[in-house]
């Protein structure tokens, strides 16, 4: 059986609109200044090369560097400046700052936005939701088809270890440039897409290198209110071309406020915790001796999920210091007809932002009636069951342990009993779970 | 840097008189006072107890942001809690791992509360008390319950009947946070010192609350001497047209010269001006706030440019003009001025932002972004700050 859902795809580029009608007709010297072979020769875009940090903010290093006058938040300024420029040039489908938004009164502080313009003008399309990994299809819309004016800058690691900015640098396919482009249907100010190695036409699938790039972007922007997000296929990604999203919203997300319970610390020092008192079950990753440690641990977890065909969302928060990983099953339920009509009627697609507590609502009625309770109800449908979540965790921890190069600490510390979540006091009581000792047969798989 | 320190002195002495420093020095506690209206939300006063506890000299601390004392073992969620409390202009009491100058970590009970201007209800400062937690291993079980009880007791001691409503929420939250956070170990290789989380005792909580009360009474007393009264709870919300401290904090991070004007007030006065604006024009804050921008024009200013500005404001459109402006000392400069409407969370225009750029000014070439791009980035940063300001359910929002 193949599971599909119908939904209105989000228009992220002005070159996406007429795609259904025109198909793949436009190939070769297309005259619209895109990022395909036809238009790349001679193309120039700003280039921002970041310094490879080998330390996640904090510690003595931070103390030392703060002694100096803090450097201008360069990436932040570049991104905001370029984005505002595109706004002045009228490239967006609507002015997102004219969309009403509020923090819903209540315990959790869910954020609601009324956005009536985002999903107009598009017919619902069928999406296959039961395959997290699907091959890249050059005939469908992908980011090489966007106009160069929608691209803000190229983003890469600096070769000499110093931050570099070139206002107008040639786009060189042999260097596999990664780019940051606008989303023409923004859900908040500064909504952009980070497209790793855009010309390699990678499908929506996490790999270590790309995830590290996203983490660098969060660290480099250095603004706790600039977060990156990722949706896998089957977890409401609509375009099968590797991309992360990001935008600014100077409010703490409910998921960031949720209490957590430590499960384990990996050999590389990455602390893995479980979200508590939040409608969607998920893991939180933080710490690690280097940014790369944190990145590798999370990417390994993501790779494990996608290889096991489990849809998931990722939120990169707090300048890359905290990462939330949320396996989900909403689309599957939707395809199986298990989601209640009242939830479907809202047409809210629970992707990473919604799961984090930022709800973009299409109907005024839903906006006015938005409450903790309604938001919770929707998100509760997204979450895996406790039982399934523990199974998935077992898979993830095994994957992390392997990535850890056989570091024994992780497994020693591991606690994956499904019923240990309700008692905070049990964490340190040295009831180290003996059930997972790193070998396959100990894992409860279904 | 000099002018920055000047501002800091001013922030403090002008409100509490010169003698306040001496009176505060007599308090034995470890505490800092910060000013959210200054760029970077810097520390403007640090007690002897604080300097001794952290191993810094006074000059190393004044003008810095409190985050410099955090380190790799500091719980990110606690840091976020504090950021939220500042945003919402409310008190918070939380266990926090801080680092001394020599890099050694220590647990302390951090108790922070806002100090309000009695007249307009605006936050003038935040007081933060640090009570070191005497280390004892965390016991498992019953935590949550214990903390909640302690929390409500603390509430009675410190707040009496005032602001109870506001605080009870945060304390329930706090109870939860502490019970869970205290369970977290720290991924730190310094060993046992950081390994176990510490929990503040009743005594330590009371100490923190008492210290806060003592500091507040000193500040209140000395503010009476200058006639610019402060108090520990918000007494008035008449501050129409004034910006909340959280907006001030976010705007303070923007390095360019810009002003915000309020089109809903008579004659569209300036309600915010950045430090760079004072530097560019030579005016001081009190000479600028509340006035219309026209004082920048002079005899040779082209009136057709002024007309264009008015037109774009009327049409609620952005515009860029090159206009001759005058500094306080009467010298003139070409201002590449960019003006744009800025919307609040309801999507309505709340302010106009005007970003000034002195034509041909060398130190603005800086780091490679074109002047236009830097102007646009300031506009973007202002939009984000203003939009999120009006979203919150915090007590400061009118």
Annotation keywords:
heterodimer; A: 446 residues; alpha+beta; HIT family, subunit A; twelve-stranded mixed sheet; three-stranded mixed sheet; 13 helices; 17 strands; 27% helix; globular; disordered C terminus; B: 398 residues; Beta-Lactamase; 2 domains; six-stranded antiparallel sheet; five-stranded antiparallel sheet; 14 helices
Question: Would you summarize the structure shown here?
Answer:
Chain A is α+β, with helices and mostly antiparallel strands. Chain A is 27% helix and 20% strand. Chain A has one domain (32-60, 69-442): 2-Layer Sandwich (HIT family, subunit A).
Most residues in contact, chain pair and counts: A-B, 70 and 65 residues
- What is the level-2 CATH architecture name of the largest domain in chain B? 2-Layer Sandwich
- Average the pLDDT over all residues of chain A and give the rounded result: 83
**Strand content bin of chain B:** 15-25%
> Major beta sheet of chain B, specifics?
6 strands, antiparallel
Number of helices of chain A: 13
Distance N to C terminus of chain B? 35 Å
CATH second-level architecture of chain A: 2-Layer Sandwich
Descriptive report:
Chain A is an alpha+beta fold and 446 residues long. Chain A has a single domain (32-60, 69-442), classed as 2-Layer Sandwich (HIT family, subunit A). Helices cover 27% and strands 20% of the residues of chain A. Chain A has a 12-stranded mixed sheet. A 3-stranded mixed sheet of chain A has the order 3-4-17. Chain A starts with a strand and ends in a 33-residue tail after the last helix. In chain B, 40% of the residues lie in helices and 19% in strands. Chain B has helices spanning 2-16, 20-25, 48-54, 58-61, 76-87, 143-159, 164-181, 192-195, 202-226, 245-252, 275-281, 285-288, 303-314, 371-389; strands spanning 31-34, 43-46, 92-99, 105-117, 123-132, 230-231, 258-261, 270-273, 319-326, 332-343, 349-355. In chain B, strands 1, 2, 3, 4, 5 and 6 form a 6-stranded antiparallel sheet that branches. A 5-stranded antiparallel sheet of chain B has the order 8-7-11-10-9, with helices on both faces. The chains are: A alpha+beta (446), B alpha+beta (398). At the A-B interface, helix 2, helix 3, strand 3, strand 7 and strand 12 of A face helix 5, helix 7 and helix 14 of B.
